Amino acid sequence: MASSFEVGDKFRNRLTTLLEKGDFSCQKELREELNGMVEKQDQASISFATLRKLKNCLRNNGHPVYLHELLEDSSLYLPEVVKPPRNPELVARLEKIKAKLANEEYYRITRNVNTQEMNRNGTLADFGMQVRSAKAAVVTVLNFLVTLAATFACSYMGSQYIFTETTARVISAVIAASVVGLAELYVLVRTMEGELGEP
Question: How far is Cα 78 from Cα 4, in angstroms, rounded to an integer?
């Protein structure tokens, strides 16, 4: 945090002119501090407290010189922030945590990589699993078709006791087969969702 100004040449010149005047009176400590600042050749700084004293002194003496005119070519002195040394125990813990997180990320990325798989096509176990899933899909489709055909046949045969015309019997069989087909599709979709939802 800034607590002083780095003074410029204009400040030094005006302060020298003020100090050489005989009518400028201020405290002895302030005069000595200001004289020491004027005599410095390199970059000098003046604290805010000294500037307040100088402002009061200028106001009390009734000088036409204002503080902001003196500080026209000056700049705030911002000391360099010194970072405290890091605690070695904390650094060691942070390194352990970073290594643990890196290992977890590596495991997450490579968990589906099979190191025993020698070729791109997969192993025989993978092929067997694909055959089983294809077999299950074929059996499901055949089961769906057989159910529809059986429902249509049963409805067609059973409706002969209600309807005498063939058209009415076919329509009733189609309606019954459609209802059963939609029910089968609903159950199939729910089953597929359950299988896909499992991790």
Answer: 8
Instruction: Give the contacts of 169 (CB within 8 A, at least 6 positions apart).
Output: 156, 159, 160, 163
- What's this model's pTM, rounded to 2 decimal places? 0.36
Mean pLDDT for the stretch of residues 174-193: 90
Q: How far apart are CA 121 and CA 129, in angstroms?
A: 13
Enter the DSSP assignment of 73.
Answer: T
List, in order, residues 6 or more apart from 15 with CB less than 8 Å away: 34, 37, 38, 70
Q: Which of 175, 156, 177, 174 is nearest to 165 (CA)?
A: 156
Measured between alpha carbons, how far is 158 from 1 in angstroms, rounded to an integer?
96
What span, in angstroms and rounded, lies between the C-alpha atoms of 165 and 159?
10
